[in-house]
């Protein structure tokens, strides 16, 4: 059965309400909310109002259930609002067809859905085949569709973020104080950036924000062209923990950004990088509780979602802004208008963060996030432990994996890495972290510290993604050569080799057959006849005199 909106309370006229108000003092005086209704009470009300005993008992039951004057007002005649005189079997069929036709991800409009449902109920070659007098009209079916709550429509036809606006959100996700709760999320910027050399279009960047809930300050951020990953999440968290002065100095941005510090809870959604073991282990090692929320609507991370909406709205000021949808762009060519590089965009973003920090915030009672941060930071004391090392912190938030040490070291894809400390750990598993920005080295966690292991062989100092892209390009060239005649040549060579094998077998069989013929028969079936002996002719000797001259002994010239 489809959930429908509850029927509205019947509207009472002003005259009926006045009648209920006139009866209310008498019922309040004589009828108790608990206990039995006695004959004396009914008689007293009957004498005061002139109502009959049956009417008084009916009104008394309504009054005891809801002791207000409105419950004593006369009800309007006719069927209650929202009721339908539809056969239960037909109503069940309508609900089933509604689930099939209307409540889906891309639903038709209600008039068309009602027309389709009516047709399937009426068709004599269909599944239902109800008689015409049992089937409600299309308008009635359309009214039935209108009674379905918006939350049911949203659940069937909308995504989680859009559906969240149609659902109840009781409760509150609270922060218990300064640097207690930080929310993190990622968004694709609605602007196209260009490369720094030829100023050609590159694409839209990814932006990661971390907001400190108590002060509503942007504690950290990260900008990249790469999709959200463990590496980029770690860089964003490290950005929130560490002071921003080195970044501001490197980019040459003259703004105030004093927000940093070690926080207690990190609230994030169910993205794969947030759930990874290495990311959670790095958070716990630094005293941060990785509070990954359960799957659900976007309102569970409402603070960061609202911040992202505010910051993304500012991107429309930039050249190359794409707008929120195609209709907003119309004939605007965002690719042709793109003009900013990633570094220029990051400098602009830092200025916008400074603007945000110095703008009054409604959730802070009109205070600015910068004001709130300054007040709370003065009470808090050190924001970061003195022993915190930036390089060590970045390494902790790198992606990692447990790998086995072999005789050639650690193998990652086709590359091998070695360090003398691995000599005693052959056959053991160790935790290995790698930086996506280089393939020259990785880090092994040995006895609580990181050891840098160099790659074996000659490899360029490039990003891992660039190296894998280059290898993929080489493999593509190989596949192209195969498709462009190499595969046919391979097939011909295979066929020639197999033909050579076949001919060798034929020649070998023929040679063996000839050898068998030469050898003759076996002794077991040999011909036992005695062969006839040849008679030798007697030798006739001549004397020397009969030989004549001895010229036959002379050597002829």
UniProtKB/TrEMBL annotation:
GO terms for molecular function: nucleic acid binding. InterPro entries: Integrase_cat-core, RNaseH-like_sf, RNaseH_sf, Transposase-like_Mu_C. This is Transposase. It holds the Pfam family Mu-transpos_C. One of its GO terms (biological process) is DNA integration. Keywords: Plasmid. The keyword Oxidoreductase does not apply. It comes from Sphingopyxis macrogoltabida. Residues 166-377 form the Integrase catalytic domain.
């Amino acid at each position: 059965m489809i959930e429908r909106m509850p029927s509205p309370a019947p509207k009472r006229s002003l005259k009926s309400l006045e009648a209920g108000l006139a009866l209310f003092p008498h019922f309040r005086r004589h009828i108790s909310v608990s206990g039995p209704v006695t004959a004396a009470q009914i008689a007293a009300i009957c004498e005061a109002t002139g109502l009959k005993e049956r009417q008084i008992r009916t009104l008394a039951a309504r009054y005891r259930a809801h002791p207000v004057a409105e419950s004593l007002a006369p009800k309007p005649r006719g069927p209650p609002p929202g009721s339908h005189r539809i056969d239960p079997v037909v109503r069940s069929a309508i609900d089933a067809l509604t689930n099939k036709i209307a409540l889906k991800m891309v639903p038709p409009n209600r008039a068309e859905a009602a027309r389709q449902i009516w047709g399937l109920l009426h068709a004599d070659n269909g599944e239902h085949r109800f008689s015409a007098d049992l089937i409600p009209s299309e308008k009635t079916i359309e009214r039935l569709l209108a009674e379905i709550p918006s939350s049911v429509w949203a659940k069937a036809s909308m995504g989680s973020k859009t559906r969240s606006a149609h659902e109840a959100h009781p409760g509150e996700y609270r922060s218990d104080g300064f640097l207690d709760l930080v929310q993190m999320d990622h968004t694709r910027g609605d602007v196209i950036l260009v490369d720094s050399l030829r100023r050609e279009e590159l694409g839209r960047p990814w932006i990661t924000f971390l907001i400190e809930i108590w002060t509503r300050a942007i504690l950290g951020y990260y900008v990249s062209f790469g999709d959200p990953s463990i590496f980029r999440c770690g860089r964003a968290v490290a950005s929130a923990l560490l002071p921003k002065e080195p970044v501001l100095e490197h980019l040459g941005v003259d703004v105030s950004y004093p927000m940093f510090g070690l926080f207690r809870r990190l609230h994030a959604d169910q993205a794969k990088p947030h759930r990874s073991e290495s990311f959670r282990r790095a958070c716990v090692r630094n005293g941060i509780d990785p509070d990954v929320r359960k799957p659900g609507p976007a309102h569970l991370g409402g603070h960061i979602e609202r911040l992202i909406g505010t910051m993304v709205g500012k991107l429309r000021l930039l050249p190359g802004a794409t707008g929120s949808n195609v209709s907003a762009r119309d004939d605007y060519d965002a690719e042709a208008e793109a003009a900013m590089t990633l570094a220029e965009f990051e400098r602009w973003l830092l200025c916008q963060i400074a603007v945000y920090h110095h703008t009054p915030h409604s959730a802070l009672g009109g205070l600015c996030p910068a004001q709130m941060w300054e007040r709370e930071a003065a009470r808090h004391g050190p924001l970061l432990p003195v022993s915190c090392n930036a390089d060590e912190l970045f390494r902790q938030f790198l992606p990692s994996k447990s790998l086995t040490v072999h005789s050639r070291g650690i193998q990652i894809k086709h590359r091998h890495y070695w360090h003398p400390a691995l000599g005693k750990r052959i056959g053991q598993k160790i935790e290995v972290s790698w930086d996506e920005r280089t393939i020259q080295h990785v880090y092994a966690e040995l006895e609580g510290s990181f050891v840098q292991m160099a790659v074996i062989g000659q490899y360029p100092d490039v990003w891992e993604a660039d190296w894998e892209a280059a290898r993929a390009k080489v493999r593509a060239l190989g596949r192209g050569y195969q498709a462009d005649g190499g595969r046919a040549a391979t097939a011909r060579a295979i066929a020639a080799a197999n033909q050579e094998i076949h001919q060798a077998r034929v020649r070998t069989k023929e040679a063996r057959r000839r050898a068998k013929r030469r050898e003759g028969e076996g002794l077991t079936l040999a011909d036992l006849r005695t062969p006839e002996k040849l008679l030798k002719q007697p030798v006739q000797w001549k004397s020397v005199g009969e030989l004549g001259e001895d010229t036959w002994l002379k050597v002829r010239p």
